[in-house]
Specification:
The protein has 242 residues and is an alpha+beta fold. The protein has nine helices and ten strands. The strands form two sheets. The protein has a six-stranded mixed beta sheet with strand order 2-10-6-3-5-4. The longest helix has 24 residues. It starts with 8 loop residues before the first strand and ends with a helix.
């Protein structure tokens, strides 16, 4: 029942479109809605990137606040598993070390825990942590055990294409792909441990500027993030350890 405090930051996205652009393009007036969708989607991606990778010091965007990963790696409350991972070889032994780094009182609630991994680390986890179907297939196949081909045809998507985030399971725990996660970083926690707070509704403000003959768009958002309990986070950072 402790209090979780959020410090929100105000972020602005603005752009403008000339009247000639709306008049001369093949989409006509529909170009305006098209641009709004593109820009707001890009803004949402930037917000996610900031919430995950913000460090309070780098560049224009990431300097706005500390993100979830930075709060874990820069403090002393989370629990680091000292592992060595090369070429994204996230084997069952490595994943078990992350679990063992978690305090026992949280491991007792193992069914509620979840791994989070970047795209490359997720691929390494899939490669080295097969399912029961893989083990049976390997036993009756001439393909050497432990090869990517035997990993349930790479999550039953033989020719993987870009799409939504993927999930798998390792040692009985779900693994969630997080494309914006840093390379070589995997953490383990409860999904509800991450707290997001939005202090204002996100709206697109539109204004015509006669002197410039342009339409200006401005989007504001005020949001903050926080861990509810950093003691309930275990992680491994291969970029540091290897």
């Amino acid at each position: 029942f402790t209090k979780v405090e959020l410090t929100t930051k105000k972020i602005r996205l603005d752009w403008e479109v000339s009247t000639e652009s709306l008049e001369d393009n093949i989409e006509g007036g529909a170009l305006e809605d098209h641009l709004v969708r593109l820009m707001t989607n890009a803004f949402a991606n930037d917000i996610e990137d900031l919430a995950i990778n913000g460090d309070g010091s780098t560049g224009v965007l990431l300097s706005v606040m500390q993100g979830f990963v930075n709060k874990v790696t820069s403090g002393t409350d989370a629990h680091e598993a000292l592992v060595t991972v090369t070429n994204d070889d996230w084997t069952p032994v490595v994943m078990q070390d992350i679990i063992l780094a978690m305090p026992r009182k949280y491991r007792a609630l193992k069914s509620n825990l979840k791994f989070y991994a970047g795209t490359d680390a997720f691929a390494g986890i899939v490669k080295h942590n097969g399912t029961l179907a893989d083990a049976i297939a390997e036993a009756f196949s001439s393909v050497p055990a432990g090869t990517p081909q035997m990993r349930q045809a790479y999550l039953d998507g033989t020719a993987q294409t870009f799409g939504g985030a993927r999930t798998t399971r390792v040692l009985g725990i779900d693994v969630q792909e997080v494309p914006y996660y840093p390379a070589g970083y995997v953490d383990l926690t409860f999904p509800q441990n991450r707290v997001w707070g939005f202090q204002r509704d996100i709206t697109v403000n539109r204004e015509y500027r006669p002197k410039k003959d342009t339409i200006e768009y401005t989007v504001f958002v005020r949001f903050g993030i926080q861990w509810e309990e950093l003691d309930a986070v275990a992680y491994a950072d291969a970029a540091v350890e290897s």
